């Protein structure tokens, strides 16, 4: 499979590191990981996207689902260092302003 | 406009990465700039994804046929499937929906693919043939602008 997903727990909160390609085939795996982490996380979820080589609208829809789930549970949901392909698809979807995008975990 | 190649592939999401790789190599050989290649590949991938989702409802054994044509002005893709057909006027209906979209409206995770297709390609046509073939034509200029 052309996606790798690592989940890291940090003091009760979670970071998901995604690398590879996120499309119709691989996005269900990312969706499962994100929704699990949103439920488990104390107050915030960070999805690191710096190593994502390709993302289509299936990936964006997955991120939107994660964001909506986090908002329902009053938890923060942030995208860390999205790669150029991720920024492109967010821009083309007109959703770049919907997400909280950070360039370092300290933000 | 010349027909450069036609590929036939199953409606299996796993095959999308191979289709993307093929189109990337073709567009590189034809000297398209990288940013334009990225846009085209994304738009085409969205069209294939929509066919798998909406025409074949996720069934992995449907037939998809993609023809690539290149002229002096236009690059054209014709994507055919024999799955379920949307209403013939669905592109017009979606266009009206997009124009009515309100930034304050709740975020919807669905329907993003068509938004991307319409932003990437200058011309988008859809037709259902008498034999039940759904045919989507996507055209972009070889050089020039990206729609805003």
Q: Could you characterize the architecture of this molecule?
A:
- The complex is a heterodimer of chains A (107) and B (148).
- By secondary structure, chain A is α/β, with parallel strands linked by helices.
- In chain A, helix 1 (27-40) packs parallel to helix 2 (57-72).
- Chain A is globular and about 30 Å long.
- Chain A is 36% helix and 36% strand.
- The longest helix of chain A is centred in the middle third of the chain and has 16 residues, at 57-72.
- The mean pLDDT of chain A is 94.
- With 148 residues, chain B is of the alpha+beta class.
- Chain B is built from 4 helices and 5 strands; from the N terminus they run E-H-H-E-E-H-H-E-E.
- A 5-stranded antiparallel sheet of chain B has the order 1-2-3-5-4, with helices on one face.
- In chain B, helix 1 runs antiparallel to helix 2 (34-55) and helix 2 (34-55) packs antiparallel against helix 4.
- Chain B is globular, with a radius of gyration of 15 Å.
- Chain A binds chain B through residues 2, 21, 23-25, 54, 56-58, 60-62, 64-65, 67-68, 85, 88-89, 92-95, 98, and chain B through 13-14, 16-17, 20, 38-39, 42, 45-46, 49, 52-53, 107-110, 112-113, 115-116, 119-120.
How many strand units of chain B?
5
Q: Within the largest sheet of chain A, what's the order of strands?
A: 1-2-3-4-5
The level of helicity of chain A is 25-40%
Query: Radius of gyration of chain B from the CA trace?
Result: 15 Å
The best one-word shape of chain B is globular
Strand proportion of chain B, as a percent range, falls in 25-35%
**Strand order within the widest sheet of chain B?**
1-2-3-5-4
Tally of alpha and pi helices of chain B: 4
Sheet with most strands of chain B: 5 strands, antiparallel
- Terminal residue distance of chain B: 26 Å
**Largest Cβ-defined interface:** A-B, 24 and 23 residues
Mean pLDDT of chain B: 88
Helix content of chain B: 25-40%
Question: How many helices of chain A does DSSP assign?
Answer: 3
